[in-house]
Each structure stands twice: as structure tokens, then as C-alpha cells.
Amino acid sequence: MAQTLSSLPKLEMLQRRVIACWRCPRLVEYREKMAREKRRMFRDWEYWGKPVPGFGDPKAELLIVGLAPAAHGANRTGRMFTGDRSGDFLFRALFEAGFASQPDSHDRKDGLRLRRCYITAVLRCAPPANKPLPQELRDCQPYLEKELELLAGVRAVLALGKIAFERYLSVVGEHADLPPRTKMPFAHGASYELPAGLPRLFACYHPSQQNTQTGKLTRAMMQAVLAGLDKYLKTGG
Fold it and tell me: 3-state class of 174 per DSSP?
């Protein structure tokens, strides 16, 4: 017998609600436009062209928060960080650190599994010029809030890039008395203990092609952040 939405596990129910979202007209228009026009090298693909849900281990200890799907990456494949250079860089690092079952990610059915880790983003649709509007980020916020509620085992959060870092703090800051932002600046490799039993927050440059090709973010830098995270999760410090 087919499952109804209400009978699904809560995390899967949330993922389906994300996929069905139409809240932001500008993003709907852009994601569908990219799915129709396609990039020449992907002309034989049937693009996803919808909001992209988070994915990973429901019992995750680590939550990775990115910015948004790429127009010809996750907007094409339907899975966060899958099908573009950012994902190539990230999943290799996660594999080497023991958080992923394989070092590459091509499509939703490629067998990749995350271990102790869940990946999401502060925006679920590809934005024009990769620049979301403040209202679009606010409209997407309830999905991240619900993920934080459902992923009860998370003990560490890794924010990829300044926007994800600031948005995460904005979300949790609505329910906890956080230190002033001046005491928690975004910096690659920084980490902060947050009050009220919140997960420890780690910061990393976003693995965008611009950052990795210019050397702003190197494999060694990413490996160091993930090694610190793994140590924290295993030892608590």
C-alpha cells in the first residue's frame, strides 16, 4: 500500500515539502529556466529543476550548511553539491575524513552515502548569479529550523562560507541568547562554542570553484577543518 505523506518518517516528509515549495517567484522562474536551457555538456540530462532537499544520515552528528544549489549542479542532479566542481572537492574531502562512502558524486543514484553527516543549505533553489535576496533566505529559513529540530543528534555544524555562517547564527539566535557577532566573526578554521546546548559551530570557506582554483581554499585547508571536526566529535574537544 502506498504511503501517505503523514505516514512517512518526519525527515523524509520535510524533504518532500522542500521539493514541493513555490514560495519565491524569482527563484522558481530561474531554476526552471536553467532546467530548460541547460548547459551544452548536459543537454541530454533531464534537469531536476526543483528545490533541492537536504540529505544524509538521519542520525548525523555533523550538519554541513552550504549556500544554495548550483544552477547546473544540484539544480540538475537534485542532490546537494552533486554534479559540479564544488561537490567534487567537498565529497573527496568528506570521503578522506570518513564522512562519505565514496570520493565522488555524479547523480542521486550513484551509491554515495554519508556517515554521521547530513548536508543542507540556507537556500534550496538555485539563485540568479548565485546571489539570493534577503527575503528569499528568510522564506527558506523554516526548512533549516525544522532540520535542526529533527536532526537531534547533531553536535557540530560546519558552515561553508560567510552567508551560510551568518544565516545559521540568525536562525539559532532566535531561540538562544548568543554572544555579539563581533565576538564570533566568520573566519576559515574558526570554531565557536554556543550557549543553550547548541552544537559547536565551525567555519570554512565555501568550496566554490573560484575559491579552490585560486588557492583561497586548498585540500589541506579543508582536511584540517574536517580533522578538527572529527576530533571534536570523537573526544568532545
Answer: coil
For residues 136 and 121, the answer to whether their CB atoms sit within 8 Å is no
pLDDT tens profile 64-84: 999 999 999 999 999 999 999
**DSSP conformational letter for 3:** P
190-219 residue pLDDT tens: 999 999 999 999 999 999 999 999 999 999
Phi then psi for residue 95, to 5 deg, are -65, -45
Coil, strand or helix at 180: coil
Q: Residue 222 in contact with residue 93, Cβ under 8 Å?
A: yes
Task: List the domains of the chain with CATH numbers.
Answer: 7-235 (3.40.470.10)
Cα separation, 67 vs 73, in Å, equals 13
